[in-house]
Amino acid sequence: MALKFRGVDFLDFDSLLTDDERLVRDTTRKFIEDNLIPIIEECNRAGRFPRELVKPMADLGFFGASLKAYGCAGMSNVEYGLVTQELERGDSGLRSFVSVQSALVMYPIYAFGSEEQKTLWLPAMQKGEKLGCFGLTEPDFGSNPGGMRTRARRTGKEYVLNGEKMWITSGSIADVAVIWAKVEDEDNTVRGFLVETDRPGFRAEDIHGKWSLRASVTSSLSMQDVHIPESNLLPGTGGLKSPLKCLNQARYGIAWGAIGAAMACYDCALQYSLFRKQFHDQPIASRQLVQEKLAWMISEITKAQLLVLQVGRLKDKEKSRPQHISMAKRNNVWMALECARMARDILGANGVADEYPIMRHMMNLESVKTYEGTHDIHTLIIGQSVTGIDAF
Ligand code: TGC
Ligand code: FAD
After folding, report:
1. Cα dihedral sign for 269, 270, 274, 280?
2. Cα–Cα distance between 151 and 224 in angstroms, integer?
3. Cα(318)–Cα(228) distance, integer angstroms
4. Closest ligand to the CA of 375
5. Tally of domains in the chain
6. Is there a contact between 106 and 64 (Cβ–Cβ < 8 Å)?
7. Of 95, 180, 322, 337, which sees the most CB atoms within 10 A?
């Protein structure tokens, strides 16, 4: 039975939002309801990215939404967060695509690029005419990207890149890859490069057999003597802090997005529990053990909303710290995964079927818990912040 999402707001969260913020949220919600919900289960089964949604999403200003120029929408951080919440209410894979395009490709071009790079890429990426990917993780370096082996060597007016990147969202559909590499002639400093994906020596291959984020493209990248002009270096990059600054943007969007997935699972379980009858012809919602699960979910969703709203308000005032974002990402993704597991339980056997969205969200959230810094890495980031001691 198809259950229509009704929104989740226990503590009058809406009253904390401006009219513009609510408008952005409702517009995105309608877009997802009309365009993604009818096709997402088919995409998930087939392992298909719904590429047909790229142009409509561009038209709504989703790409580079919080950037202030080059045709971008100039949304506040809270507005952008509400967009990612609604996208992930649909599917984490679609939110992932938007996060990568916006926070991990357009943002570094905007923050670290030359004027020529910005003019060349940002308007085309905002319109969805060009797609991007972000290559930081390698087969042997995930949580510890500082160990990366990818190298850039300077020869005359070019750089030559060699290395492997792994688990790269949108890798094989990207026109441009932001590649992080150590520059041999600069004491192995990490720097970012724009690599057009049709350059000789660049290869992207999809990773198959994923039980998570099936509606998102994930690839491995290989670079063998890829020559790029020196003008493809992102001039403002220097050191590991450059890619980590991009991750702050993306992790922030995930912290909102996870609430969307949790809301979808909670609302589905609530509606189901009210019509599903067991024992004495009574709905399962009338049972204390079921109510305990629903009460846990709505309490945690509400706390997560308040947490990420405060981080967003601080970010809008340029007062958020990376550790604030770590707390929101860590808490909200964990909370969403717990909600998905409880919601699945409430649906009994129906919970494992893709007639309902819960199992898909649960499987997606397993990746979300790992990427952009695992749950435990964010624990250590918070631990370092409060103790001053690095325990990585
Ligand atoms: P460490 O020595 O601590 O730091 C190196 C330099 O970076 C600075 N820094 C930051 N700057 C800005 N933002 C942050 N969040 C920062 N964290 C650290 C730091 O101050 C230092 O600066 P400086 O001036 O002293 O050089 O570095 P470390 O090697 O000990 O590692 C720290 C650690 C573990 C926190 C970091 O490496 C980390 O976050 N690891 C997790 C890796 C990760 O998140 N990878 C994500 C890959 S992209 C992805 O998953 C995309 S999924 C896409 C989708 O949504 O589909
Ligand atoms: P590892 O680093 O090997 O960690 C394995 C386990 O060890 C984890 O539980 C971890 O918490 C734990 N661990 C590691 N170090 C410590 C420590 N010091 N103390 C305690 N525990 C520790 N990367 C990109 O660059 N671009 C992308 O677009 C991208 N997209 C992705 C899409 C998907 C679907 C997935 C699954 C991943 C993607 N990633 C991407 C990669 C992602 O960022 C990494 O998977 C993540 O950073 C973790 O690295 P790892 O998988 O190598 O795990």
Report:
1. positive
2. 10
3. 35
4. 2
5. 3
6. yes
7. 95
Same domain? For 245 and 382 the reply is yes
Residues 199 and 313 in one domain: no
Q: Residue 66: which domain range?
A: 13-126
Determine the residue of 141, 240, 332 to mutate for testing ligand 1's pocket, defined as the one with the most ligand atoms within 8 A of the Cβ atom.
Answer: 240
The confidence score (pLDDT) of residue 2 equals 78
pTM over 0.90: yes
Say if residues 106 and 126 touch (Cβ distance below 8 Å). Answer: yes
Q: Domain for residue 1, yes or no? A: no
Name which of 302, 331, 368 is nearest 94 in CA terms: 368
Q: Is the minimum distance from the CB of 145 to ligand 2 under 6 angstroms?
A: no
State both tokens at 60: 């709504």
pLDDT tens digits, 146-199: 999 999 999 999 999 999 999 999 999 999 999 999 999 999 999 999 999 999
Are 246 and 382 contained in the same domain? yes
Determine whether 138 is an active site residue.
no
- pLDDT of 77: 98
Å from CA of 84 to ligand 2 middle: 21
Residues of the chain with pLDDT under 50: none
